[in-house]
Amino acid sequence: MTGTIDGHRVRDPHGLHADAEDQVRQAASEVRRRVGDQYDDQVVQRAVREAYDEISDHAKIESFLPILVARAAEEKLGARR
């Protein structure tokens, strides 16, 4: 949701949080699709959250975040084997 303050477009911070959670869900879904039942759901979620926290601040194009996070999380899981 967007609005305006003093003529400037601003996004509702609640919407930003929802967008982030949606991106994390998308990434987790992609990781689960790739790794199947090799890892417990909590382990996948933790790897995805860690990857998101590391990547999201530096992302240039937000629409690529879910796939970049999924790849990074998958690498983290592979390193834990």
UniProtKB/TrEMBL annotation:
Signal peptide: none annotated. Pfam families: Phosphatase-like_N (PF21234). Residues 27-79 form the Protein-tyrosine-phosphatase-like N-terminal domain. Residues 1-33 are annotated as: Disordered. InterPro entries: Phosphatase-like_N (IPR048716). This is Protein-tyrosine-phosphatase-like N-terminal domain-containing protein.
